[in-house]
């Protein structure tokens, strides 16, 4: 990964050395670090994600799992962020995907799948995007059900 990506991870992780994620992907495509709250930051340079990031445009919700896990689109930036973004996923031109949170690795996998689907769809005449209302509803339902599963009973 580029040195600015490694520097970002070191700043974000409070100076701790980035850890290798447990992933089926090639480790050279990933870098990760733990945030102070125990969640993670992951930088992915997976092939379709990186190719889409080069376009510097958001990935629309073309798959239901992207709508559920990320939302109506994956935002895009043409420059590397100075701080960890508030969004759970951000495409960065020339770098790939920056994802954060407890589901950082799942987000990276879903974004790669969505980037591939969107690119293949465009090659075949145009990817069909989920309606914004449906994508937003999917995200809302996912967050509500996931939040209930994530809450642990107090002792």
Q: In terms of topology, how is this protein built?
A:
Blueprint: H1 3-12, E1 30-34, E2 40-44, H2 47-53, E3 59-60, H3 64-69, E4 73-74, E5 76-77, E6 89-92, E7 96-101, H4 104-123, H5 132-150
Helix pairs in contact: 2-4
Structure characteristics:
5-stranded mixed sheet; 155 residues; globular; 17% strand
Gist of the model:
With 155 residues, the chain is of the alpha+beta class. The protein contains 5 helices and 7 strands; from the N terminus they run αββαβαββββαα. It has a 5-stranded mixed beta sheet, sandwiched between helices.
Describe it for me?
The chain starts with a helix and ends in a 5-residue tail after the last helix. α2 (about 45-55) crosses α4. The protein has helices at about 5-10, 45-55, 65-70, 105-125, 130-150, and strands at about 30-35, 40-45, 60, 75, 75, 90, 95-100. By secondary structure, the protein is α+β, with helices and mostly antiparallel strands. β1 (about 30-35) and β2 (about 40-45) form a beta hairpin. The strands form 2 sheets. It has a 5-stranded mixed beta sheet, with helices on both faces.
Helix segment count? 5
Return the average pLDDT rounded to an integer.
76
Low-confidence stretches: 5-30
Large-scale geometry: globular
Structural class: alpha+beta
Q: What amount of the residues lies in strands?
A: 15-25%
Per DSSP E runs of 2 or more residues, the count of β-strands stands at 7
Tell me the helix content.
Answer: 40-55%
Largest beta-sheet details: 5 strands, mixed
Q: Record the strand order, biggest sheet.
A: 1-2-7-6-5
- C-alpha end-to-end distance: 43 Å
- Assembly type of the chains comes to single chain
Radius of gyration over all CA atoms, rounded: 16 Å
